[in-house]
Specification:
This protein is of the alpha/beta class. The chain contains 16 helices and 13 strands. 46% of the residues lie in helices and 17% in strands.
Length: 386
């Protein structure tokens, strides 16, 4: 069996190399020790994986994240050609567009094992015709997949209830999340805390609320800004730290909302050291309108930082309410402010929940656990082909 397994050919398909770097490196490294791995991604840097000393081949395919009919058709035919040429045993896609094109191509070429990982639904915040079309696309890719992975139990329950995926062909690996958390990288770090606060001119006595992720409306950053504005009217030692790319050009809007308190907001466009900003924070906040799981929450947890998150599927898996953090009704600024005040006025509770969050992250979500579950899952599926 081992001799057969080493010859198995696995193809990972994503829209951008950032998905690989952010979530899949450890899994691909582990898989590459047993299988022949090919990565298909929309990248201008096909050597990026080899620079990381991971044994895998890279093929560039222009998979666009947004709907782009002509580019999508070209991408589809390119995938069909590549799948026929390489005769993969497994095609595994992550992200919606990569999933749709891969599952259609894999079905047409009759790839024996076609896996898609759901990490959240774009259509959940849409309405009308656009929502119906996007939801139909998810239904189609789930139908054409032989197996479906979902990164949280609450998301799986939602997708089954909505008729997007079947209960029979979908599972959640381990306790959830795409890749788990690096418990060595994310940890309490006094030196990093001091370094970041010094760089941003924030004293140790001041309180830092952190958001880390893409700056867009679906992530709730405008709600967070409006809430923080109200908070600044109550306390004069608050700071809001927003770390992540400004996808929808919201920085000017956020600055306008917080014009009277602009000295208390800090923008960091990009970092390859998110753990330092986690260490510098007192409270992590993810007021998202849609989320598959919320990996940043367990990364903050591993750093000993409790979280406030919106009460939506995905986040309710990452935060154990009143144990590792607090939940508020999505879009409700007053409710979000109330939760912030609870943490600010109860430092003992904040410390206790941070400790609980850290213990839970280390126990339930270490990256090694998720990677081991994926390897076991692959072995189970491939054993049925032998």
């Amino acid at each position: 069996m081992d001799k057969i397994d080493r010859k198995r050919k696995v193809c990972i398909v994503v829209a951008t190399e950032m998905t690989i770097k952010a979530f899949l490196l450890d899994q691909i490294e582990a898989l590459s020790k047993k299988y022949d791995i090919t990565i298909i991604a929309n990248t201008n840097n096909p050597s990026f994986i080899n620079m990381l000393k991971i044994k895998a081949s890279i093929i560039c395919v222009a998979i666009e994240r947004n709907i782009s009919p002509w580019a999508d058709i070209k991408g589809l035919f390119r995938l069909i050609y590549l799948f026929r040429k390489h005769k993969f045993d497994i095609v595994h896609s992550v992200t919606p567009k990569a999933g749709l094109l891969s599952m259609i191509s894999g079905f047409l070429v009759r790839i024996p094992i076609r896996i898609h990982t759901f990490t959240g639904q774009v259509w959940i915040t849409q309405s009308g015709f656009k929502k119906r079309v996007l939801k139909l696309m998810d239904k189609l890719l789930a139908l054409l997949a032989t197996n479906v992975l979902i990164d949280s139990n609450s998301q799986r329950a939602f997708l089954v209830e909505q008729g997007v995926v079947s209960e029979k062909k979908s599972i959640v690996l381990a306790k959830g999340s795409v890749s788990g958390v690096d418990t060595k990288r994310f940890s309490s770090n006094h030196n990093a805390r001091k370094e970041i606060r010094n760089d941003l001119n924030i004293s140790e006595q001041d309180m830092v609320i952190l958001f880390l992720g893409r700056l867009n409306k679906d992530k709730g950053v405008l709600d967070l800004s409006k809430t923080f504005c109200k908070l600044c009217e109550i306390y004069n030692n608050m700071h809001l730290l927003l770390v992540g790319p400004d996808e929808e050009k919201l920085k000017s809007k956020i600055t306008e909302i917080l014009m009277q308190h602009k000295n208390r907001i800090h923008f960091i466009d990009y970092t390859n050291e998110p753990e330092k900003y986690m260490a510098a924070a007192d409270i992590f906040c993810l007021p998202s309108y849609r989320e598959g799981f919320g990996t940043v929450i367990i990364e903050a947890a591993c750093s000993g930082i409790p979280a406030i998150g919106s009460r939506i599927y995905g986040i309710t898996d990452a935060i154990e309410e009143n144990v590792t953090g607090l939940l508020f009704n999505v879009g409700d600024i007053d409710s979000l402010l109330e939760k912030m005040l609870v943490f600010i006025n109860n430092p003992g509770m904040r410390k206790r929940m941070g400790e609980n969050a850290c213990k839970r992250a280390i126990r339930d979500f270490p990256k090694e656990m998720v990677t081991a579950a994926l390897l076991k899952y692959y072995e189970m599926l491939l054993s049925k082909l032998s």
